[in-house]
Amino acid sequence: MNMKRHSFRVRIALLSATLTGASLIAFSVVFWWLIYKAYLGRLDAELKNQLLQTNHLQEQPSLQVYETRLTHNFNDTPIIFWLIDREGFTQYRSPNMPNLNLQISNFPQSSDPPPPDFPHTPDRPRPPDFPHTPRRPRRPPHNFESHFPPPPPPPPPQLKIMTRRSSSGLWRVGLVTFPHQKVAIAVSLSGIDQEMASIRNGFLVSIPILLLMIVGASWLLSSSALHPIQRLTKSIQQVTVKGLDQRVPINTTDIEFVELIQVFNQMLERLERSFKQASRFSGDAAHELKTPLAILQGELEQMLQKAETESSTQQALSHLLDEVRRLGGTTRKLLLLSLADAGQMRLYQTPVNLSSVLADQIEDIELLAPHLIIQTEINPELMVSGDQDLLTQVLQNLIGNAIKYNLPEGWIKIQGYKRGKKVIITVSNTSKDIPLKDRDRLFDRFYRGDPARTRQIEGIGLGLSLAREIARAHQGDLTLDPPQLGQTSFTLTLPQAGSKLV
User: Fold this and answer.
1) How far from each other are the two terminal CA atoms of the chain, in whole angstroms?
2) How are beta strands 373-378 and 411-419 bridged, if at all?
3) What is the spatial distance between Cα 480 and Cα 339, in angstroms, rounded to a whole number?
4) 144, CA 20 to 30 Å: which among 116, 201, 236, 369?
């Protein structure tokens, strides 16, 4: 089962929205991540700076004052401060410190171990320092520096930064280890999270708006790009018998469509030339045959009058005269069709009362087919404006077909009425069901359906085609009604006098 494809403009808009949306989402994710990393990098740099400044915290008069100043340096963001001495005892710890699972083992190890001292453990307090008598410094001996190398520089502090989660959110934790103490500073990431949430919300609002703008721009762009194709389509729609002289202008067309339009214009030129040649040939042939057939018909009529009654000669001449008349009718139909094809069918416009024309035709039916049941529903004064001879020919063709293709002991129903500004004539008759493959070709020229069904019926397959051309020349139409079991119906639609069908 073939699925219905969307139009080119819809597919272009959807493709543009898909590609642009994917690009915008990828760009937003990467940009958001880079901004987040930049915030973290700036925070880490500030953390390192503050951690390195804690080397001389023992000189501070109050560690709580330092914590307050530290909070101010981080723009009043929640701060955790933890100071541990060389022996592992906590000298200061921020109140209400959340559980960040920070332990002494988390701190980086110093590259230079502390000098040996009085043995103690965290569970065993350090004994107080005993007073001692200051000793007078000894004067270094001569060339002391030459005998002993200078003391090594102090080891650099060991830094470590990590992210920890608590019940209050994420924290950025900086750890530093000095030879004489360890310091931990934790900064809450709630401020950064709020900034990133604002950026994310901005992306969530701006991306759909951008996508709508891109879809609209793609729609307008595709419409502009398809404008030459639309003009070409309109020109193709106007390619009828009367519109083969249509051409698509090239001077205002994009260069990409120039070759396509040139090929189309060349095709129209070939079609116009071929159609004119075919129309001229059929018209000329019919016109040239008209005079000889008229002369031949006159000669045969004279010979038929002089022939002996009921002789074989009279029968032969009568048969030849019928064939000549039939050939003359075909010639007239071909001439009318050629004029219709060329748009030169001349109509002698006069008011025509189709009700009276149908009344005359019904009298002929009673004479030609007395075995058929005739049903009529004809409104009076069905007035149209047109050529009475041609319209009479259309009705004769419809009624003649209803007689020829009827069933024994069948019926013919003729309806005539007004509907709005239209006059509608419907001719129905009992008949065999027409195959679907034949219904679409009934109005083709010289088409007579199954030869087994039509070999005994006169005609050459031009009547319906000519009748429809006459109806269309009168701004009307002739159609075959939808199939109904055991009957065939044709409907002739014409504008009322003084109006035109739209």
Assistant:
1) 38
2) parallel
3) 24
4) 116
Strands 169-177 and 158-166: antiparallel
- How many other CB atoms are found less than 10 A from the CB of residue 491? 16
Helices assigned H by DSSP within 376-424: 388-404
Query: For position 122, what pLDDT does the model report?
Result: 47
Write down the pLDDT at residue 1: 43
**What is the topology classification, in CATH, of domain 350-495?**
Heat Shock Protein 90 (3.30.565)
Residues of the chain with pLDDT under 70: 1-6, 58-61, 111-151, 154, 235-236, 238-244, 251-254, 256, 275-290, 326, 328-345, 446-461, 498-502
User: How big is the chain, counted in residues?
Assistant: 502
Listed by start position, the domains of the chain span: 7-109+156-225, 255-341, 350-495
Cβ atoms of residues 100 and 173 within 8 Å: yes
> What's the rounded Cα separation, in Å, for the pair 89 and 104?
10
Cα 490 vs. chain centroid, distance in angstroms? 40
Sheet bearing 79-85, strands edge to edge: 90-93, 79-85, 181-188, 169-177, 158-166
Residue 116 structure tokens: 């040996």
Residue pair 188/81 in contact by the 8 Å Cβ criterion: no
* Res 429: pLDDT: 93
**How far is the C-alpha of 430 from the C-alpha of 413, rounded, in Å?**
9
CATH for 255-341 is 1.10.287.130
For residues 115 and 39, what is the distance between their CA atoms, to the nearest angstrom? 40
In whole angstroms, give the CA distance from residue 431 to residue 442. 15
Q: What pLDDT, on the 0 to 100 scale, is given for residue 491? A: 93
Instruction: Please choose, from the candidates 210, 271, 208, the residue with its C-alpha nearest in 3D space to the C-alpha of residue 236.
Output: 271
Query: Structure tokens of 397?
Result: 């063709």
Alpha-carbon gap, residue 33 to 356, rounded angstroms? 90
Phi/psi at 195 (nearest 5 deg)? -60, -45
Give which of 386, 430, 378, 384 is closest to 407, Cα–Cα: 430
Q: Is residue 456 classed as helix, strand or coil in its secondary structure?
A: coil
Q: CA–CA distance from 2 to each of 5, 8, 11, 15, 498 (Å)?
A: 9, 17, 17, 21, 48
Helix, strand, or coil here: 148?
Answer: coil
Rounded to the nearest 10°, the torsion over CA 149, 151, 152, 158 is 170
Residue written as tokens 């339009």?
Answer: 261
CA distances from 196 to 17, 188, 193, 202, 370 (A): 26, 14, 5, 10, 97
Are 34 and 45 a contacting pair, CB within 8 Å?
Answer: no
